[in-house]
Write a structure and sequence with these properties.
With 416 residues, the chain is an all-alpha fold. Helix content is 84%, strand content 0%. α3 packs antiparallel against α8, α5 runs antiparallel to α15 and α13 runs antiparallel to α14.
Length: 416
């Protein structure tokens, strides 16, 4: 039965605005990451550690938030997210070097995780009869915000407007969602409403299917978010419009998530996840082995692939393992972001090593030689990442047949 609340649509709109701020922080930071490195004389490894801060701040907040959301309520969590977003944006605007960028990115990462910790169970609660579809509709604002953010960077750069103004624009939706959430009434989470005890919820986390999905979440998150956050850095020497590759990829994700309902109902969540892994692998291969216009084809295929990963993983757990409650959903998100933070940190160093190895030895390094080295190193990082969706194809094939067999057994049991 669907949980209803008089302010359901307003809560959904405010949730989408909060996620929009989360994604704007990814899109704008992805667009200005290289420029921050130049202005503050940061290495790629230092840029990697700054970018990774948002990813490990996120799991810290989302896991802690998942544990306390049933205790303090979703409203208090979202007002905390508002404060952290505002602090992170202001600190970024007035950043003076590595540590101020590090702290500001941590604040934004904590805010982003707090938004997910409260909004995922909120959407699952107010749309409990169609969770996967509505989670996809909610999460379309993540790629949607990245599209908006990268376009802001692209056009304001053309107009000669500095990155501080670009970051400052995030204040507007932040203030709006903070105001809306302060005025709205919230329901209790679905787990609380259904009477599942806290002890039963934690026991459900030991279910082998949940543990299997948690492990797969590491791969789906890295495939989607590492590539998106670093595509401009990795391919800027391969394409003159590397940031537009991210815009195209995320634009495809917005459209796909908008049509999630018929897609999920036609192929089932496990079918969607398997198809997503296949397309993600194909898209990454094209991005790592192409140049010119074929890079845009790769971005389109890759966008189609990663489109449904995050919300469908959460929807699958919420629908098939409902006793895991808000903690289950938020552990999934936290595990995914933590995996991205670790992977981003190591791949930043790996990229620097690849560039150094490809520079001519015994002669002064010229700009042309450095650009040539980066042109070769970027695709190699993508090719290394390609292994992950290839593993996911195998894993989701196993999951697809397991769930189909489980449904068939259930049907036979009911009919007999």
């Amino acid at each position: 039965m669907q949980t209803t609340t008089p302010q359901r649509s307003q809560l959904f709109v405010a949730s989408c605005l909060a996620l929009l701020v989360t994604s704007l922080s990814f899109g704008i930071r992805a667009g200005i990451l290289g420029r921050l490195g130049v202005q503050f004389n940061l290495s790629t490894a230092e840029l990697g550690s700054i970018a990774a801060t948002a990813f490990w701040g996120f799991p810290l907040a989302v896991v802690v938030g998942g544990i306390v959301v049933d205790i303090i309520g979703m409203k208090r969590l979202l007002l905390l997210a508002f404060i952290l977003h505002l602090a992170g944006i202001v600190l970024t605007i007035f950043a003076g070097g590595y540590w101020t960028l590090f702290i500001s990115t941590l604040c934004v990462g904590l805010a982003n995780g707090t938004v997910e910790a409260a909004c995922n169970p909120l959407v699952a609660t107010i749309y409990s009869d169609d969770k996967t579809t509505k989670l996809n509709h909610f999460h379309l604002w993540f790629p949607g915000g990245i599209v908006i953010g990268t376009l802001i960077v692209y056009f304001l750069d053309k107009a000669g407007i500095g990155w501080q103004v670009q970051v400052g624009l995030m204040v507007i939706p932040t203030l709006i969602y903070g105001f809306l959430f302060s005025k709205l009434s919230f329901p209790v989470t679905e787990r609380v409403a259904s009477g599942v005890s806290m002890g039963d919820m934690y026991k459900a986390l030991l279910n082998p299917l949940f543990i299997f999905m948690l492990i797969l979440m590491l791969g789906t998150a890295i495939t989607e978010l590492f590539t998106g956050q670093w595509i401009d850095v990795l391919l800027k020497n391969v394409s003159d419009n590397a940031i537009l590759l991210l815009t195209i990829e995320t634009g495809i994700m917005v459209i796909g998530r908008g049509f999630a309902g018929p897609v999920v109902h036609r192929f089932s969540p496990t079918g969607v996840l398997l198809i997503s892994a296949i397309l993600s692998a194909a898209g990454l291969y094209l991005l790592g082995h192409s140049s010119g216009n074929m890079l845009f084809v790769g971005a389109i295929v890759f966008g189609m692939g990663v489109c449904y990963f995050w919300p469908t993983m959460l929807g699958f757990v919420s629908e098939n393992l409902p006793r895991t409650g808000a903690v289950g959903m938020n552990l999934m998100g936290g595990a995914g972001m933590f995996a991205v933070s670790v992977y981003t940190f190591f791949m930043g160093g790996y990229y620097d090593k690849l560039v150094a190895d490809k520079l001519p030895s015994g002669v002064p390094v010229t700009d042309a030689a450095l650009n040539d080295a980066k042109k070769l190193a970027g695709p190699e990082v993508l090719n290394a990442t390609l292994v992950i969706p290839l593993i996911l194809i195998v894993a989701f094939t196993i999951l697809f047949f397991y769930m189909r067999n489980k449904r068939n057994i259930k049907v036979v049991t009911v009919t007999t």
